[in-house]
Amino acid sequence: MQSTFKTLGLGPEILRALERRGYREPTPIQQQAIPAVLAGKDVVGSAQTGTGKTAAFLLPILQRLAGRRRGKLRALVLVPTRELAQQVLENAEVYGQHLDLTFTAIYGGVGMEPQTRALARGVDVVIATPGRLIDHIERGHVASDALEVLVLDEADRMLDMGFAPAVNKILDTLPARHQTLFFSATVTRDVDRLAARLLNDPVAVDIGQRAVAAEGVEHILVAVDREQKSSVLAKMLAEAPEGRALVFTRTKYGADKVARHLRREGNNVAVLHGGKTQAVRTRTLDRFRRGHTRVLVATDVAARGIDVVDIAMVVNYDVPTDPEIYVHRVGRTARAGARGVALTLMALHECIAMRDVEKYMGRTLVRQTVPGFEPAIPPIQPKERPAARPAGRSMGPRRGGARRRRR
């Protein structure tokens, strides 16, 4: 029998919020994770981006907290970026709109005083980035004696970004008895090791293989000379006029440079990276989410909190040196059952990194070129090839160290 949010154990207030949001059936990770979280189990959840991980932990947490004492920190969600903190807060406010619970987000780049006042008033659920949360802890603004649930969202990226010492410092301030949830697009060895130290007999919720690109993504690999990348990108965007595009670069300087070139070619472009103020980043994301900006050029860290369901194309302007980053990037398209394109522009010096990506994904991509922009050294086709693409097919997007807890 098909599970529903009601059969998973969620109450009428949350069901009403989900109905208003238009959510009818739980996703696979929600079907597996929600009962485990409601039962008080520790959970390690892994699923492709866009499969509903945030609701998989927020819904049962809100259900557990509802109808009991309030005004103290009872659930703490740690996230790697301020954009993701804002996103999780927005979801919590929607899911909990009919519950007598309070929420706040704690992150850097903005003044501490409003956050301090919110913590002083008493908050049931805090969503925080590690660095800013430690600032508040050291100032005595956070009392965690009533904590019931700790969530590490995007745990792999948190560790990749060097937050392990900060996370461990936060863990040392928390009560020994609490439920711990790890949710991530991929579960890496570092996450496994941290989970083994912190979690007590956890329930593993794995939806599909770990670290694989979402189904529905068409992967296109274009060989091009490095100095021609911006021109090739502008050409391909012009050939695919419908839908939004998210372009990833390795550096802030590279993001600004690509955006300038695309603007000169007449594209509606915005830039998102750590060099922008929080106010600018918030406005930029909002315009992209609403469709006012067609192309967003971003670095990996800045784009971590982007939650836009209908991105038609993701572009790897720079081939990532870490294959897992490729999976995270392309997971921004083909979300919630949709289809999308992952375009990678590969210069000669990036061939080895691209082979690592292909090995990681377990598939090989045909090296293509764009007429008029053929690289000086023709690409060598790998021996292992995927099925040939239909002739005449458009290359654009389809239209329309912590201590173990004691229980």
Word description of this protein:
With 407 residues, the protein is an alpha/beta fold. The protein has 2 domains: 12-206, Rossmann fold, CATH 3.40.50; 217-368, P-loop containing nucleotide triphosphate hydrolases (Rossmann fold). The chain has 14 helices and 14 strands. It has a 7-stranded parallel sheet with strand order 3-4-2-5-6-1-7, sandwiched between helices. β12 (311-316), α13 (323-330) and β13 form a beta-alpha-beta unit. α6 packs across α8. The protein is globular. The two termini are 35 Å apart.
Characteristic terms for this protein:
7-stranded parallel β-sheet, 14 helices, 2 domains, about 400 residues, about 35% helix, Rossmann fold, alpha/beta
Order of strands in the sheet with most strands: 3-4-2-5-6-1-7
Averaged pLDDT, please? 84
Helix content: 25-40%
Share in β-strands: 15-25%
Instruction: Measure the end-to-end span.
Output: 35 Å
Computed CA radius of gyration, to the nearest angstrom: 22 Å
CATH architecture of the largest domain: 3-Layer(aba) Sandwich
* Number of alpha- plus pi-helical segments: 14
The CATH superfamily of the largest domain bears the name: P-loop containing nucleotide triphosphate hydrolases
Outline type: globular
Q: What class, by secondary structure content?
A: alpha/beta
Number of domain modules: 2
Poorly predicted regions are: 385-407
Under CATH, the topology of the largest domain can be stated as: Rossmann fold
Sheet with the most strands?
7 strands, parallel
From N to C, what is the helix and strand string? HHEHEHEHEHEHHEHEEHEHEHEEHEHE
Number of strands: 14
CATH class of the largest domain, anyone? Alpha Beta
